[in-house]
Amino acid sequence: MQTAMDGALRHLLEALYEEGARNDAHEQERRRKLLNLEPETAHLLSVLVQSGRRKRLLEIGTSNGYSTIWLAWAVQTTGGQIISIDREVAKQEQAAANLQRAGLRGLVELRCGDATELVADVPGPFDFVFFDADRFSAPAQLKLLSTKLTEDVLLCADNVQSHPDEIAGYLQAIEALPEFEHMVIPVGKGLSLAYRAAANVHKP
Predict the structure, then answer these.
(1) Does the keyword Mitochondrion apply (predicted)?
(2) pTM over 0.90
């Protein structure tokens, strides 16, 4: 049974978030920004993983590992594992070090490269997917993952309210999937949640 997050880990997460905010405030080049998830959004995702007993997680967009640590902390309860993808080598090196500091490195497989290309070959099935990278590529990634999802699955995507034009294609792709219930939670920068229950899967 998961206990409350200990003080050392909470302080590490607070430090990483503050470091990311300072970096992004002066960094002009997007690929060098850390663009960390809002703390309340990260906390909500961890609760969803724990309450839904999610075990096979895919995160697209590792950055420095801030959100990855939240997810890894959650899967300690479920006996799960995470595959996290990012195209920036330097960011994944930071993520690896930060996960090690958090004592959670063994729960996460880090893959570096173009997310769409990697998603095509990544092994499933996944019962939880978090889209938090290139919003324009998310619809193609969703399509590639369609046969790699468990019947009972939760799909999440950030930045619905902060970048509505960029994420519109993903939201349209989700709305076109009749088996999924979809909602947008006004937390952080806007979180899309799409849930498919096993009972909704149409079997041949």
Answers:
(1) no
(2) yes
